[in-house]
Amino acid sequence: MTAGTLKVAPSLRLSRRSQAARGQAISFLMQQAVENPQVISLAAGLVDPATLPIPETHAAVERILGDPAAARMALQYGTTEGSERLRRLLCRYVARLEGATPETCGLSPDRLLVTTGSQQMLSLVCEVLLDPGDICLVAGPSYFVFLGTLEGVGAEAVSVPTDAEGLDTDRLEETLAALDAVGRLERVKLIYVVSDFDNPAGLSLSTERRHALVEIARRWSRSHRIYILEDAAYRELRYDGPVHPSIWGCDDSGGEWVIYTQTFSKTFSPGLRVGFGIVPPVLHKALCARKGNEDFGSANFNQHLLANVLESELYAAHVEQVCAAYRIKRDAMLEAAEEHFAGIPGVSWVRPHGGLYVWMSLPETVQTGFDSPLFREAVHQQGVIYVPGELCFAGPVEERPRQHMRLSFGVQTPEGIREGMQRLARAVKRVLQVHG
Amino acid sequence: MTAGTLKVAPSLRLSRRSQAARGQAISFLMQQAVENPQVISLAAGLVDPATLPIPETHAAVERILGDPAAARMALQYGTTEGSERLRRLLCRYVARLEGATPETCGLSPDRLLVTTGSQQMLSLVCEVLLDPGDICLVAGPSYFVFLGTLEGVGAEAVSVPTDAEGLDTDRLEETLAALDAVGRLERVKLIYVVSDFDNPAGLSLSTERRHALVEIARRWSRSHRIYILEDAAYRELRYDGPVHPSIWGCDDSGGEWVIYTQTFSKTFSPGLRVGFGIVPPVLHKALCARKGNEDFGSANFNQHLLANVLESELYAAHVEQVCAAYRIKRDAMLEAAEEHFAGIPGVSWVRPHGGLYVWMSLPETVQTGFDSPLFREAVHQQGVIYVPGELCFAGPVEERPRQHMRLSFGVQTPEGIREGMQRLARAVKRVLQVHG
C-alpha cells in the first residue's frame, strides 16, 4: 500500500446535516485578523483582556485545591446536568437579578442545566426542538452565530423587524399571522431573543414588550408549544439606562414558555466556558439526554471554580469593575462616532446602554459585506475590520439589508477604539466619494 | 393568567431525533447508587479519587496564573479546534506512544481537534458521518454510552463477535459480506473499536488484527469511505502484557482511514474534561464546523492547564502512579474472583492487562439485567451494584447475551473490591439456588 493508492480511494460521504452546514463566518473574520496583523479589530467579540479575573480565579482555585476533599470533588467526573452546588447558587443568583428569591420565583436546581458556555445551551435547544424545515423567529438583525446553529439543524430563521425597543412585537404578530395564512404556523417552534443590549444592535426589549412576548407565545401555541429562547448573555453588562426583568421573569406561569440562557463568559471569563439554562420541567429530561450523548457533562472543575466565585463576594465586585471599564470604552466609541461620522450624510448609529456593540447604518448605496469595496478599503487600505451587518440577518443574502456594521468596543483600548473609528470613517468617506 | 391555564396548554413537541433518543442507562445506575448509599458500587466508571492529581493541577495553575500574559491567554476565548500549543504538545505525546516523532508519523496540529472529553469527539464523528439508518459496526460487547450516542443520531449498531484478541476480524468480514448480500453495505460508515483494555470486556486488539482492520476498512470502502473510529481511552492504563501500536499507527496511508480519540479523563482528571481527536484532513473542517455550532470550543483554561502538565514531567510520573494504584486494585478483584467465584460452575471472567473493568460471564440461565432477580438480590439484599452486560450489546434486548456483568475496580479501595466481590458471589449463589 502506498500513498498513491489514495488517489483512487472512494470519496468521503458526510451526513446530510453536515453537507448542509456552512462554516461559521467568524472563521473568515479571524483569518482576516491573523493575515493582517496591523489591522485594528472592531470585529472581535472577545472580552477586554484587561478585565480578565486573574486574582479572583487564583483565590477560587486556592480554595478548591487547598482542601483535599473539595479538590477531589472538583477533579472527578461531574453529572450531565452540572454541579448541584453550582445550580443552587445559580438559582440565588438569577433570583437576585429578578429582585426576588428562588422560592418566590419558583426556581430550583432541577430546572437548571450547566453547559459549555451559553452557546451549548442554544445548540441543545435547537437539537431537541427543531426538525429540518422547522421555523425559529429571530430579530432582524440577530446574533449571527445562532443563525449558523439554526442552519446546522436544517431549521429556517425568519426575521422580525426591530425598532428602538428591540424586537417589534406587533410585527411579530403579523409574521405569525402571515405564516399561519400559508399553513406554516405548524412549523414555528421557537422565538429567539437577546433581551438586553443585544448582539449585534445593542438594543434592549422594553418591559412591556417582554410581557407581550410571553402572551404572544402562549396565544399562538395552538397545536404545540412555541417557546421563547431568551439569551441573556449581556444582561449584567449594563452601563446606564433602565433595568428590566428577564422575559423569563415576566412569564407568570412559572417559566413554562421561556427557556432562559446566560453565560459567565462576558462578566467573568470566557476561558472557563461556563454557561447555563433554566428550562421548563418538560424539556429538562430531553435536554439532559441530548447533552448526555454529546459530552455527558461540561468540565466539573470549572463549575466548582465558578461556584466558589459566586459564593464569595468576588463576583459582584468583578462585574462592577468590568462594567466600569466597558462604560469608558463605549463612551470612547460613541464620542469617536460623533467626531468622525456625524458629518457623513445618511450615517446613524445606536447608542447602547450596555453590551459590547455599536450598530452603525450607512446610506443604502453602501454595502459592507466581505466582497464589498468598503470591506476591502477598510481592511487593506485603512487597517480596520468590522462585522458586516448582512451576516446578522436571515434569508437569501440579496434580500438582506446590507448597509450595516457591527462595531465592538470589547477588545480595543479607548485609544485603539478612537484610532479604529477614525480609520473606519476614512474608509467610508473614500467609498462614498468613489461609489456613493 | 393563572397556573390553571396550563392544564389546557398545548403539548410539547420534541424533534424526531429527541423523541427517538432514550436516556443513557447510566442515569438509572447513578440513581440506584444514590438511593442505596450502603451499596458497594462495582458499576461506576469514575476514576480512583485517591489518584486525582491535586499537586500537579496546583503546579500547573500556579504557572498560568502567576504569569499575567499566560493567565490572560488562558482566561480568554480559545478557538474551536483548540489551543495550538496544546495540539502541538499532543502531536509529540501521541508520537511518543507510537514510538515515533510527529514528523515520522505525519502528525501536525491541523489534524487535531480538542474536545470536551473523548465523548464529544465520538459524538461529533457520529453527527458528521451518520444519517438515520446508517450503520456502525461495533464489538459485542461494546461501550454502552457510545451505543446510546449512535441511537441518538438514529444510526444502527451492528455487533461483531469478539474473542480473546478483541473484535474478531474474520467475523467482521463475514458481517460486511452479509450486509453486502442484502444491499446494506451502502449504509456502513464506521467501525468503532476500543483498541486497548476495552470497556466493558477488558480486551485488547492484537497488533495483527489492527493491521487487518485497516486493510478491511480500505477493501470494503467501495462507493464511499468506511472509517475506523478508534477509542484509545484506556491506552495508557496498562499494567502488564504486550504494548501495541494504535490502529491509527497501523494505517500506513498516513491516517486516512482512522479517526483516533483519546482522553485525559482516566490518566489525569475527568473534572477537566480534556479529550482530543486525530482526524483525516478531509474530515477536520466538517468536525470543526459542527463543533462551532455546538459550543465553538471547549474550555480554554483547561487546555492551557493540561498543556502545562504535558510540558512538564508531571504527567508521565502521574500516569505511573495511577497505573501502580490500579494494578493493585485489578489484582484485588481477580484474587477475589478466584476466591469467591471459582467454585461456582459456569462462571468465568476475563483477566485484563489494563483498563478499569473485569467482564464476568454467568451460566446462560442467569440474567443480569435491571429487572432480573440477580440485580435485585445484589442491590437490595447483598448491597452491591454492577453494570448489566446486556447494556453493552446492540440489537433487540431479547436477542442479546444477558448473562454478563461489567465489574469496575476503578473507584473502590482494594478492601471495598474484596467486600463487593464477596457480596456479589453471595447474590449469584443465592440466585442459582433459587432459579438455577
Q: How widely separated are the two ends of chain A?
A: 61 Å
What is the spatial order of strands in the main beta sheet of chain A? Answer: 2-9-8-7-6-3-4-5
Number of discrete helical segments of chain A: 15
Mean pLDDT of chain A: 94
In the predicted model, the low-confidence regions of chain A spanning at least 5 consecutive residues are 1-8
User: What structural class do the secondary elements of chain A suggest?
Assistant: alpha/beta
Give the number of DSSP strands of chain A: 14
Shape of chain A: globular
Overall helicity of chain A:
40-55%
Question: If interface size is counted as residues with C-beta under 8 Å from the partner's C-beta, which chains form the largest one?
Answer: A-B, 95 and 95 residues
Over the alpha carbons, how many angstroms does the gyration radius of chain A reach?
Answer: 22 Å
Instruction: Report the biggest beta sheet of chain A as strand number plus sense, adding barrel if it closes.
Output: 8 strands, mixed
- Kindly report the oligomeric state of this protein: homodimer
Order of helices and strands of chain A: HHEHHHEHEHEEHEHEHEEHHHEEHEEEH
Fraction of residues in β-strands of chain A = 5-15%
